[in-house]
């Protein structure tokens, strides 16, 4: 999620013709698409601080189908009965209907989740169209622009893509291989040149917890390593690699990290063809059943194309994808069979690595990151009372999503498909727009808010809460210096509020301020909503930078579902009537916060509050830092430290930069996460960090997650 600063060129995303999608024009309903579970790993903040995971991360979690058997899912109420979940159980029927129109909420979601918005991906014209739409809605509601130069936009710079430069080469025994045919660089590979002998290292996995190590008995220092994509026995539901704690081993980024830690100079990742789907019981057995894919199969000659999308932090090692047929020839020339060695690993779950005698590899990678400007959209509603007016309640949601799919996509098959992100997070933005209209309409009346409100649609959340991080570091509008972020009384975050089921709403951050838990309970009771609480103020969404800046937060979320980060997250699956109820609850919370004495911030407690049911959990031991997700390279920049955690016990503080952990160099957040996951509670590790120009090393004992 963290993106380093690298040399590159600035390129502003191409401006879309916003007028082609006017704010008042109803968007066509996005087409539903299919989706399936996949095993893409995703870095989550909770891994570090010991809190909850956003449901659907890692191995995606299935949820019950939404509104099964109902004819109009967009406008259903979402009431399906069921017992009260753990947390606050509220069984009373709603005292009155929501003041918010489900039809208007759905219209905003459908507009933002229309294909013409291109999945609101970073660097797309669709993201610019979405920003223009949101700004037009703020203007129509009567909000005061709170962005740069009297506009609604707060611009900041992010990486938007990667391009191939001249000079990428792969030579084997002096023979030049063909770029984007035989090989192609990974878009998060390091730049540079390397050469050495070739070593086949199976799947490139070191997994001590399941007794598997492809690097056992081989020396790869200074050599080029060939590894297979995915994992052994990937179709076997009983494989030890199906354990959720082992899902990271299939990630290409992990394989590069592991090769680097073993001293390799470069990595050739074999781009295996997709495995054949299991035969249906009624289908006749095929002659090739049970055999691995062979060179010459239809899928084997899939062309390799460079991925120009944002690749994330550099892996710190040279790396390319290598075509399966080329890899097969290289090992055949060394007297070995790639297919036989893969089949041996699958059969025995034992490594089948070997050095390839007489094979010399030269590798050159030359990439350039492309940067552009994206925009938060911010509007201000001044408070009516002079005393609390300078204090602001921020109500926000992120409006970006995955565009045509990126490294965070959980789509079953690679390819270019619009990820419309109706729930994630067009739903949250629709809620913010509805709240802005409602509060603005009451300004100047007895129902107007005494305290000021600032409405924000954040960009680049999917890259690692970059928009909200920029907002906190560079407060806009009424929060600009000398006021600053200290004048934010509270932050309310709406992220994925479009799938209310069984009248259950997750609310995180209820322990971030005195009285938040009882406030949420009191407001939910007459609405008949059942709340699941998580006390912590940290989590993988836009409230985290605020809480790290000592701002009380509340995060509203309707729960996980199997369409998370897939093309199938479309507007047709939104429960608009349920959204109206959620927005009603948030409105009542905002009304109270805008009229009550300023809430008192409470630092995270140890042990953390029990996780909300179904919210998942981190794997590995607890350390206790909150990373800064803004552009940074050369380690992990700390933006917060949990009180009473191991990190706190050795005096780590905001602004420190971790450069080594447990003896392993840390170039970025991915490195830190992989190393931390490899440790266990009770392990004593060395932590090296930079502070004020000095370098320090301390030892600490890791804790069990609670």
What labels would you give this structure?
single chain, 706 residues, alpha/beta, 10-stranded mixed beta sheet, 26 strands, 20% helix, disordered N terminus
Biggest beta sheet summary: 10 strands, mixed
For the residues shown, what is the average pLDDT?
Answer: 80
Shape: elongated
Give the total of beta strands: 26
Low-pLDDT stretches: 1-96, 279-300, 606-618
DSSP strand content: 15-25%
Q: Distance between termini?
A: 24 Å
Count helical runs.
Answer: 14
Helical content class: 10-25%
Radius of gyration, taken over Cα atoms and rounded to an integer in Å = 26 Å
Structural class: alpha/beta
Question: How would you explain this protein's 3D organization?
Answer:
The chain is α/β, with parallel strands linked by helices and 706 residues long. Helix content is 20%, strand content 21%. The protein has 14 helices and 26 strands. The chain has helices at residues 46-49, 102-112, 125-141, 252-261, 324-333, 338-348, 386-389, 422-442, 466-473, 516-524, 543-548, 576-595, 646-649, 669-677, and strands at residues 8-10, 144-145, 153-164, 169-172, 175-176, 183-185, 192-200, 206-207, 212-213, 224-228, 266-271, 318-323, 354-365, 367-381, 392-398, 452-458, 488-494, 504-508, 530-534, 553-557, 625-627, 636-641, 657-661, 664-665, 684-691, 694-701. Strands 1, 2, 3, 14, 15, 16, 17, 18, 19 and 20 form a ten-stranded mixed β-sheet that branches. An eight-stranded mixed β-sheet has the order 5-4-13-7-10-11-12-6, sandwiched between helices. Strands 21, 22, 23, 24, 25 and 26 form a six-stranded antiparallel β-sheet that branches. Strand 21 and strand 22 form a beta hairpin. The longest helix has 21 residues, at 422-442. It is elongated and about 85 Å long. 54% of the residues are buried. The model is unreliable at 1-96, 279-300 and 606-618 (pLDDT under 50).
């Amino acid at each position: 999620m963290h993106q380093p600063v690298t040399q590159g060129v600035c390129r502003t995303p191409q401006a879309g013709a916003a007028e082609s999608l006017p704010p008042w024009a109803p968007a066509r309903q996005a087409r539903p698409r299919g989706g399936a579970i996949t095993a893409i790993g995703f870095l989550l903040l909770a891994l570090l601080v010991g809190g909850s995971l956003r449901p659907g991360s890692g191995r995606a979690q299935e949820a019950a189908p939404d509104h099964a058997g109902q004819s109009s899912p967009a406008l259903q109420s979402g009431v399906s009965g069921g017992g009260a979940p753990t947390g606050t159980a509220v069984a009373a029927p709603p005292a009155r209907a929501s003041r918010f129109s489900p039809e208007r909420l759905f219209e905003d979601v459908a507009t933002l989740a229309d294909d013409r918005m291109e999945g609101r991906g970073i660097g797309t014209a669709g993201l610019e169209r979405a920003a223009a739409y949101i700004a037009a809605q703020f203007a129509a509601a009567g909000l005061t622009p709170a962005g740069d130069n009297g506009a609604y936009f707060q611009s900041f710079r992010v990486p938007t893509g990667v391009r191939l430069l001249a000079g990428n080469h792969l030579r084997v025994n002096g023979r030049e291989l063909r770029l984007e045919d035989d090989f192609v660089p990974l878009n998060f590979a390091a730049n540079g040149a390397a050469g050495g002998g070739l070593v086949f290292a199976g799947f490139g996995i070191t997994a001590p917890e399941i007794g598997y190590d492809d690097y056992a008995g081989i020396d790869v220092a200074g050599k080029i390593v060939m590894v297979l994509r995915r994992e052994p026995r990937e179709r076997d539901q009983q494989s030890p690699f199906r354990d959720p704690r082992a899902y990271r081993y299939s990630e290409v980024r992990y394989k590069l990290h592991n090769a680097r830690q073993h001293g390799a100079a470069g990595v050739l990742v074999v781009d295996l063809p997709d495995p054949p789907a299991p035969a249906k019981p009624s289908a006749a057995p095929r002659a090739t059943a049970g055999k691995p894919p062979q060179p010459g199969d239809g899928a084997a000659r899939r062309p390799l194309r460079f991925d120009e999308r944002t690749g994330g932090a550099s892996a710190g090692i040279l790396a390319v994808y290598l075509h399966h047929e080329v890899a097969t020839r290289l090992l055949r020339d060394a007297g070995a069979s790639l297919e036989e060695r893969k089949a041996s690993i699958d059969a025995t779950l034992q490594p089948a690595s070997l050095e390839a005698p007489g094979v010399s590899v030269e590798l050159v990678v030359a990439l350039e990151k492309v940067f552009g400007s994206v925009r938060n959209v911010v509007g201000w509603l001044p408070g009516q009372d002079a005393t609390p007016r300078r204090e602001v309640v921020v109500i926000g949601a992120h409006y970006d999503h995955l565009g045509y799919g990126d490294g965070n996509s959980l789509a079953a098959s690679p390819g270019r498909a619009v990820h419309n992100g109706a729930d994630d997070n067009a739903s949250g933005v629709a809620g913010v727009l509805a709240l802005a209209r409602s509060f603005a309409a009451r300004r100047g009346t007895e129902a107007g808010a005494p305290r000021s409100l600032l409405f924000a649609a954040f960009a680049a959340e999917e890259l690692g809460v970059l928009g909200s991080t920029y907002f906190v570091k560079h407060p806009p509008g009424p929060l600009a210096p000398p006021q600053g972020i200290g004048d934010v009384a509270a932050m309310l975050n709406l992220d994925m509020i479009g799938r209310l089921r069984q009248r259950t709403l997750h609310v995180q951050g209820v322990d971030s301020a005195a009285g938040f838990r009882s406030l949420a309970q009191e407001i939910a009771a007459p609405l008949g909503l059942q709340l699941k609480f998580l006390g912590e103020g940290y989590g993988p969404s836009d409230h985290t930078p605020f809480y790290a800046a000592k701002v009380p937060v509340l995060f509203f979320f309707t729960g996980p579902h199997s369409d998370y980060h897939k093309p199938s997250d479309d507007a047709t699956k939104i429960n608009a009537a349920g959204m109206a109820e959620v927005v009603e609850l948030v409105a009542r919370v905002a009304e109270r916060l805008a009229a009550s004495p300023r809430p008192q911030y409470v630092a995270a407690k140890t042990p953390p509050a029990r996780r909300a049911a179904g919210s998942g959990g981190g794997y590995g031991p607890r350390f206790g830092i909150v990373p800064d997700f803004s552009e940074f390279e050369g380690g992990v920049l700390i933006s917060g430290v949990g009180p009473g955690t191991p990190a706190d016990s050795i005096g780590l503080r905001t602004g420190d930069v971790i450069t080594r952990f447990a003896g392993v160099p840390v170039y970025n957040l991915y490195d830190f996460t992989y190393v931390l996951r490899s440790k266990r509670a009770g392990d004593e590790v060395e932590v090296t960090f930079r502070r004020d120009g000095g370098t320090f090393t301390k030892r600490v004992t890791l804790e069990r997650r609670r």
